[in-house]
Amino acid sequence: MDDSEPAATITPCPDGPLLVRGSFEILAGPGREDTVTDRGVVALCRCGKSGIPPLCDGSHRLVGFRAPAPPPPE
Ligand code: FES
User: By its UniProt entry, which InterPro entries does this protein fall under (predicted)?
Assistant: First the structure.
């Protein structure tokens, strides 16, 4: 990895999860399994309805979650 590259990037999906790419660790909390990745991709729930938080399980589609993509940079 180039030193100018971030260790991880986060991309909000329109009406869906946050895609986290890169090398990072998710400390999920008591009773939940931590997630460690090395240049992988993980989808984090932002609708609050996932059955496997903090990961997305696709439930956002069932509940009609809406979060439009941010406008493109000018
Ligand atoms: S964003 Fe996919 S289940 Fe919440």
Answer: FeS-contain_CDGSH-typ, MitoNEET_CISD
**Spacing, Cα 44 to ligand 1 middle (Å):** 7
Q: Which domain holds residue 44?
A: 8-68
Distance 43 CA to ligand 1 centre (A): 8
Q: Quick check: pTM over 0.70?
A: yes
Tell me the pLDDT tens digit for each residue of 6-20: 788 999 999 999 999
Confidence of residue 1 (pLDDT cuts 50, 70, 90): low
Q: Is residue 74 part of a domain?
A: no
